[in-house]
Amino acid sequence: MFHRIIHENWVAIVPIAAFALTFTVFIGVLVRAVVMKKDKREHLASLPLDDNRN
């Protein structure tokens, strides 16, 4: 009986942890994109259209 209660609490924690991890990664990428220098942003934005392959 007690094992089932602990198991149900564990199942409730997994989606919260997954959401927290996803949210943290999203915020990290967002902060990195906002802080990035303008010339680096323009370089990365033009990569798909760049004909010069190094």
UniProtKB/TrEMBL annotation:
The chain crosses the membrane at residues 12-35. The keyword Transmembrane applies. It comes from the Bacteria. Keywords: Membrane, Transmembrane, Transmembrane helix. This is CcoQ/FixQ family Cbb3-type cytochrome c oxidase assembly chaperone. The lineage of its organism: Bacteria, Pseudomonadati, Verrucomicrobiota, Verrucomicrobiia, Verrucomicrobiales.
